[in-house]
Amino acid sequence: xxxxxxxxxxxxxxxxxxxxxxxxxxxxxxxxxxxxxxxxxxxxxxxxxxxxxxxxxxxxxxxxxxxxxxxxxxxxxxxxxxxxxxxxxxxxxxxxxxxxxxxxxxxxxxxxxxxxxxxxxxxxxxxxxxxxxxxxxxxxxxxxxxxxxxxxxxxxxxxxxxx
Length: 163
What we know:
The chain has a single domain, classed as Glutaredoxin (3-Layer(aba) Sandwich). Helix content is 30%, strand content 27%. The chain has helices at residues 49-60, 62-67, 80-90, 103-107, 148-162; strands at residues 12-16, 24-28, 38-42, 71-76, 96-98, 111-115, 119-122, 125-129, 135-140. The strands form two sheets. Strands 2-1-5-4-3-8-9 form a seven-stranded mixed sheet. It has a two-stranded antiparallel sheet with strand order 6-7. The longest helix has 15 residues, at 148-162.
């Protein structure tokens, strides 16, 4: 299990930036460190109510993260093409990472099996990674969904402590 203080596991996945349905490129975590803290927000599935609420809360707070030179990435096992539609539909102002082969969710030990008794997805979890690649904050959902406003504020405070 990845804990606070551990090196952040590196991974390479497609990134959906949302400009168009096929706005897809490659993303490697280690190549995107160094400019400020990175927030990795794992979520089960695009277009579901809890995930929409969580990511829209990040969307509404993105200015606070930008002010700290932090970059927010959502991560799910959805295909990047679906993620692009989700970004456009919800007006998200940050990219989504497509972990359809489960590389990142396995590396971070946030695997949620039998989602709706059908598939394996990401557990709702958030990690903050500092510029050197160290985990400085770790949160994994236990029980019901949290108050997302409070959670995002807690994450912002963790980023501020890292910056």
